[in-house]
Amino acid sequence: MASPATPARTGAAGTKDRTAAGTGGAAGSGAAATGRPLDATFSAPIEKDGAFPTFLALPGSAELLGTRAAVKVEGTLDGVHPFAATLMPSGQGPHWLPLRAALCKLIGKSTAGEVVTVHLEHRLN
Fold first, then answer.
1. What pLDDT, on the 0 to 100 scale, is given for residue 60?
2. What letter does residue 83 receive in the DSSP assignment?
3. Helix, strand, or coil here: 64?
């Protein structure tokens, strides 16, 4: 499992993948992804502060995604729960993954400090 400071990144033949692809639909909708996949896994504690009441910080995200701008992604939470969301720039380095109430309920976690494992699978923009 990757440490919170270094998301695991792999692409074809185990190479680092710093690019990603979009899909035609939301995660879990059965829509097939098109283009280049994003493959990054990280674990981070839930945080509650700032512009988003509940969020995860993605250290190394600007380098992984090649931008500090907002990026739409799809993936899974805790290995099984599909999601689609926008990674928001924090203004100080890592992107934030806002965890809406429905996602917190889905994974059974909403308390600050609880660790969530995120696997980013596709970039939508």
1. 87
2. E
3. helix
